[in-house]
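Handout, section B. The chain below has 94 residues.
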Amino acid sequence: MTDNKLLHQFKNIGIAEGISFLALIFIAMPVKYIFGFPLLVKYFGWAHGALFITYIIWLIRARDEYNWSLKQTALGLIAAFVPFGPFIFNRQIH
């Protein structure tokens, strides 16, 4: 796999993971607790969980491919737990 292809895939996964996290927090959770409709949390949660795991796998692949430091890898990991974090991390690694 070429260097650019791996980084491009990682950034795309980061964007998808970030969007799924925001949708879970700002759409599914309010619908569950305000309207008593928990089904969205189930589906958004599954999608976010799958994207989160994929993001972590690609983070490890990118760390190995680009010899990222422990600090940069840790920032990528922390970004996955913070709303808007993957978007900020993507800008940092360009």
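Note. The radius of gyration is 15 Å. Compare this with the example in section A.
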